[in-house]
Amino acid sequence: MLRPTNLIFAATSILVVFMIAVVVSKRAGQDGLAPVAEDIRSGTRQELRPAADTGSSKASTTSATTRTHPVIIRQPDGPPRVKLTGFDPQGRSGEVACSTCHSVRQPNLENKTPETLDEFHQGLVVNHGKLACYACHNPEDSDSLKLADGTKVAYQDVMTMCSQCHGPQATAFAHGAHGGMNGHWDLTRGPQMKNNCVDCHDPHSPAYPKMMVGFKPKDRFNAPLADHHDHEGAESHDDH
């Protein structure tokens, strides 16, 4: 028969072991681990996992699903083509590429104005500083452009060539203050559409002509409030 002192000692030992297991499991749970605790009564091992943080999971899901829409910049269809003035026997007209003529002619790197041209492009308005024609046009490939260092540029990428000289305008364009932006300022709500340089500027004469600013017409929506009351009073007086 067990003595009372033995029973008390056994119960105390079991209680101490149980408390140690609880403390260890709590510390392991705080460290983000998956602690293993022993079920004293059944002798089985159970893996204790901390509860999932629903707030952080929702935030990560939201950030993962948030996307931005593209900024679409209009581009030319390709190299310019010259329309033919004549017609074939069937009454059809056509277009030719620049290289159709320029590929069989030696480029004159000194041409700067239409006055120096003896055949084609006469009457063309050119007012773009003191640049020669081949400062922008590629003398080795008339269906493309070139940078100042001679790098070939396709007509679709004409803005790359423009920005090498027009830096302030290119910076303003990148920030949305130039280029006639349409669409959404907040790209999380929708895309943006921007014009190309040559959509608004003539590449041979890019400066806009001076214009006189016109004022909005006066009407009942933008007239001053005092004038509006006087006008109403005059109308009522005329009616009487």
From TrEMBL:
Alphabetically ordered keywords of this record: Signal
Transmembrane segments: none
Annotated Low complexity bias: 51-68
Any GO MF annotation of the entry: oxidoreductase activity
Chain ranges of the Doubled CXXCH motif domain: 193-212
Segments for region (Disordered): 44-79, 220-240
The UniProt record lists the keyword Signal: yes
PANTHER family for this protein: DISSIMILATORY SULFITE REDUCTASE SIRA, SURFACE LOCALIZED DECAHEME CYTOCHROME C LIPOPROTEIN
Designated name of the protein: Doubled CXXCH motif
